[in-house]
Amino acid sequence: MSRREEAKTFNRARICAAAEAIIRGEGMDKLTMRRLAEVAGVSLRTPYNLFGSKTDVLIALLDEAGFEFAPRQTGESGASAIAHLFGGLGRIAAFFASDEAYYRGIYAAIMASDHPEVRSTGVGRAVVSAQALVAEAVAHGELRADTDAASLGRHLAIALLAVLGMWGSGFFSNRESIAQVRRAWLAVLLQHCSDAARPSLASAYRDLCTAEIDQ
Amino acid sequence: MSRREEAKTFNRARICAAAEAIIRGEGMDKLTMRRLAEVAGVSLRTPYNLFGSKTDVLIALLDEAGFEFAPRQTGESGASAIAHLFGGLGRIAAFFASDEAYYRGIYAAIMASDHPEVRSTGVGRAVVSAQALVAEAVAHGELRADTDAASLGRHLAIALLAVLGMWGSGFFSNRESIAQVRRAWLAVLLQHCSDAARPSLASAYRDLCTAEIDQ
DNA sequence: AATATTTTTATAACATGTGTCAATTATTTC
DNA sequence: GAAATAATTGACACATGTTATAAAAATATT
Predict the structure, then answer these.
(1) Model confidence, pTM
(2) 3-state SS string over chain B?
């Protein structure tokens, strides 16, 4: 990496660190580009040079933290693909739960911005991943052979992202959001699962309903 | 109504009409408060006096058009409550479809704004209505007696609103959005329906899946 | 009709995201 | 080391939602 690229990388990191510090210390509404530049010790123009827009800075913050919309692509095709689907959901949940207020603020700000490309690519990736896992589940006999993997995968991904959007807006706690997605996923998967996979999905669905009554 | 109230009502109407004219004629991004005041023939301050904020003007536009989040409360308890649920969905769909670009712009702008109260009340109303219809369906024996109407109604309402949010952001066509909600609703209702209601729901679900393949 | 109250208006201002543009500084190339 | 190139800076500007303030107009009260 040339020294110029090094300097850019360093400045990007400084800006991200400053953004995080402001959000954590002063709150999301204090994160203005002017304050960001000030805290990062950089001119107002530099974040635009290095990221493009305020929204892009926030996206970088999420990326940096390792957030991925989609359940991770799995190489180990021996394990249950449906379990991988829910594993991906659990990973997203854990990520956001690790610092709920912080990530919610960032996510909400990204969603509220009018940068359609951002969200489209996020949706696209999630859909593709979900479709791959559904196809795998069909191949493994967890889902019936007549299942349209593309359609079902898309449905599952959208169900997740739609709830995530509302979570970002502050409607639901983490727990409520997860419960909503799990319930939606289980119900739809139960319409397509093989007889072998049905019992565990059905009992998971029942457990979810009783758990909701408990709390 | 006093003359003062009359004048306010008249001005409110003028402002709404001007907003609609701008959105339709020049596009959503040309709807600025200054232009709105100009077209409405009113001072910049007046829309703030009469509505509160730009977002409130847009909400008034939706309300004026008769939009309701929730399926209409039904007095005729003889008919199928589940049918009423889907009827409400159809009504919302028809409303938005009647002028897709126009309403999508308004809805997206409202969602993108940071006025949490607005959205909360919308969510609250939808949840209550759905819960009422689910309870009715339980009472009629369409859904099993062990169904938790509050929980299920809430789940259904959220599933709808979450997709509506993504629709507003421009991800999906009307048709895709409806299909997503119908599929989610049918799958979950199938987990709770009585044996009598199952066949029609199951066949509706199958039809939806094959319809998706067709298009 | 005179006074008091409420609304609207006009004008200015502020904070914010973003863009412009020339000057400066740092780096690369020769 | 000199010339070329790239990145950063600084100062300013613009559009926008929103608020402040005082003057003017309309309406209500007596």
Answers:
(1) 0.91
(2) CCHHHHHHHHHHHHHHHHHHHHHHHHCHHHCCHHHHHHHHCCCCCHHHHHCCCHHHHHHHHHHHCCCCCCCCCCCCCCCCHHHHHHHHHHHHHHHHHCCHHHHHHHHHHHHHCCCHHHHHHHHHHHHHHHHHHHHHHHHCCCECCCCCHHHHHHHHHHHHHHHHHHHHCCCCCHHHHHHHHHHHHHHHHHCCECCCCHHHHHHHHHHHHHHHHHC
